[in-house]
Write a structure and sequence with these properties.
Blueprint (H helix, E strand, L loop, with lengths): L1 E4 L9 H12 L3 E4 L1 H5 L7 E4 L14 H16 L3 E5 L11 H12 L3 E4 L2 H7 L7 E4 L14 H8 L6 E8 L3 H13 L5 E7 L12 H21 L1 E3 L6 H10 L2 E4 L8 H8 L3 E4 L5 H7 L3 E2 L18 H11 L1 H12 L2
Helix pairs in contact: 3-4, 6-9, 12-13
């Protein structure tokens, strides 16, 4: 069986595609990852796998009519030649913006799919009625392989300059909008602990503008200064920005006592998987498929509209029960068996 992932794997890339390719190769299948092969195939493929529709045009948001037609034509050509289209339902629409043509990329990939793979039951139930011509399956987000999940907590805290008395709360992943910041701040302030510190690990959304050449840049600068300094010195809240290497991310997870997942309008978050691999307590919004996973792990759902009063969360050193559960949910055996069901192996 020849399978094409319509994706270019790059250094420091998301592990998701690479892990799934490994699973399929272990099942004895021929697997290639290439956008060039998608646009100009040199062999006949039995299946084409799409992950993120916006990756076809380098994650741009200004998609032209010609590009929409180009994608649609390519998918129809594959279907005409008997190639099955499998699309992962990561997102309803792009994380990077909205626009009629950008949204159309997603509609086209979902609408042309023979198989739609969901990461949880919520989106499967919701969309199997909408895309009734496709067969719907679930494959959970796999465990991450490149992070160092057995790091010593105290050594990581010392390296990061975290005081022993502080309860360290981290918000991993790129912040995409102010609602996510507001949610994390609200949860943090509601925690009933005497000494606590919050670190947003990647807030490019709040980056200091490189040039002050417009009123928008001036507003961005003032916004950045407010968050960066007011919260740091008064509330012990740090806003970091920029890319982190895997080892540095691992240190933050190892050092943390609690992980907040602030996603308010998406279906899935791989950071729940990663936090569980480190055995951390987790608080999330429970939106989309995230409620299913948080409940399975026995973790905490704080709906954005209902965060009131003070909350007490137990801070174990390492929650080994969570680690066992995430292995059961997302481990290699579970993912392999789910793929076997999808491919009828």
């Amino acid at each position: 069986m020849n399978i094409l992932f319509a994706y270019d794997i790059k250094q420091n890339d998301n592990e998701f595609v690479r892990i799934h390719i490994g699973v399929l190769k272990n099942l004895g299948l021929n697997v290639v990852a290439s956008k060039q092969e998608f646009w100009n195939p040199t062999v006949v493929y039995d299946m084409v796998i799409i992950n993120w529709p916006d990756c076809f045009f380098s994650w741009r948001t200004d998609i032209s009519n010609e590009e929409v037609n180009l994608l649609n034509t390519a998918l129809l050509q594959f279907k005409k030649s008997g190639t099955q289209i499998l699309t992962f339902f990561h997102d309803e629409y792009s994380h990077f913006g909205r626009g009629s043509n950008l949204n159309l990329l997603f509609d086209i990939c979902y609408g042309n799919a023979d198989i739609l793979v969901h990461l949880g039951e919520y989106s499967k139930k919701k969309y199997e009625r909408i895309y009734s011509n496709a067969t719907h399956y679930i494959i959970h987000h796999p465990l991450y392989e490149e992070f160092i999940v057995n790091m010593d907590k105290q050594k990581s805290r010392k390296m990061l300059g975290i005081k022993e008395k502080d309860i360290l709360v981290i918000v991993p992943g790129a912040i995409r909008n102010k609602d996510e910041i507001d949610y994390a701040l609200k949860v943090f302030k509601s925690l009933n602990v005497p000494a606590k510190k919050l670190i947003f690990m990647r807030t490019s959304y709040l980056q200091n503008p490189s040039k002050i050449n417009s009123m928008i840049a001036v507003k961005s600068l003032l916004h950045w200064l407010f968050f960066k300094h007011k919260y740091k010195y008064i509330d012990k809240i740090i806003f970091r920005s920029g890319y982190m290497l895997t080892e540095e991310v691992s240190h933050y997870f190892a050092a943390a006592d609690l992980v907040i997942i602030p996603r308010v309008d998406i279906l899935n978050s791989g950071n729940i998987i990663l936090a569980a691999q480190f055995g951390k307590q987790i608080i999330g919004t429970g939106k989309g498929n995230m409620a299913e996973l948080l409940n399975f792990l026995g973790q905490h759902i704080f709906a954005p509209e209902y965060i009131e009063g003070k909350h007490t969360v137990p801070f174990e050193k390492i929650n080994t029960e969570v680690q066992k559960k995430i292995e059961q949910y997302s481990g290699l055996n579970a993912i392999t068996n789910q793929w076997k069901k999808v491919l009828n192996l």
